[in-house]
Amino acid sequence: MIHPLAAIFDRLPISGFELDIKRNDELSGQGSGALLGVELAPPLWTATITLGDARNNELKQAAALIRALGGMRDAFMVCDPTSLWPQADFKGAALAGANVHLRTVGADRSVAQLSGFPAGYVMTVGDKLQLTDGALLSYHEVGATVAANGAGAMNLPVFPMLPFSLTANAVVTLIRPAFAAVVSPGGHKPGTASSALTRGAQIEIIQKRKPS
User: How far apart are CA 121 and CA 85, in angstroms?
Assistant: First the structure.
């Protein structure tokens, strides 16, 4: 099960958010001193979510929501609070009525070939986007600043690479893009309660690429 943003994430009193990746690489050395590296699996997004000091009842409720996920059983959608919309378009106002989608899947999976933008629309390096293709969810970071052409098309460098199973016409979300995540083992600290406030609550999460 994947809980939407409103069910879990939006109810957390977040004061800090650290987004990172977990790479799945293998590094080996040769007798010549050369290093060889190979990516064994696609990288996964991770985050450390710090909850602000709050009244005991508020953080007691937050802890209950996290425990109810059943460890790694259920996933919940997570978005980067610093990437709620493209940097060049405050609150995504220029996207009103737009139908941004994956135009086609090319041989180079480091480039997302998109259509449906307003002419001249700008995506800035560091922006985030979510791709939805049926049950498949993928989350990407923009690798270069690019403007859409007059027809609203854009070839956008992204990280990580597009999934092999992604197909044309996948829906692109640019306002509050998110990814499915589970709580890392031992990654939930409910905080320490005093007479009125709870302090030090934190949640460590990792992307779940194929939620059940």
Answer: 13
- Domains of the chain (ranges; CATH) run 1-79+179-212 (3.30.200.190), 82-177 (2.40.30)
* Site of tokens 């099960």: 1
* Residues whose CB falls within 8 Å of the CB of residue 49, separated by 6 or more in sequence, listed in order: 12, 14, 16, 17, 78, 202, 203, 204, 205
- pLDDT one digit per residue (tens) for the chain, 212 residues: 999 999 999 999 999 999 999 887 666 666 676 766 666 678 999 999 999 998 999 999 999 999 999 988 999 999 999 999 999 999 999 999 899 999 999 899 999 999 999 999 999 999 999 999 999 999 999 999 999 999 999 999 999 999 999 999 999 999 999 999 999 999 999 999 998 899 999 999 999 986 44
The structure's pTM equals 0.89
Instruction: List the 75-78 sheet strands across, edge first.
Output: 2-3, 75-78, 179-189, 202-207, 35-51, 14-29
Phi, psi of 104, rounded to the nearest 5 degrees: -160, 165
Q: What is the 3-state secondary structure (H, E, C) of 1-65?
A: CEECCCCCHHHCCEEEEEEEEEEEEEEEECCCCCEEEEEEEEEEEEEEEEECCEEHHHHHHHHHH
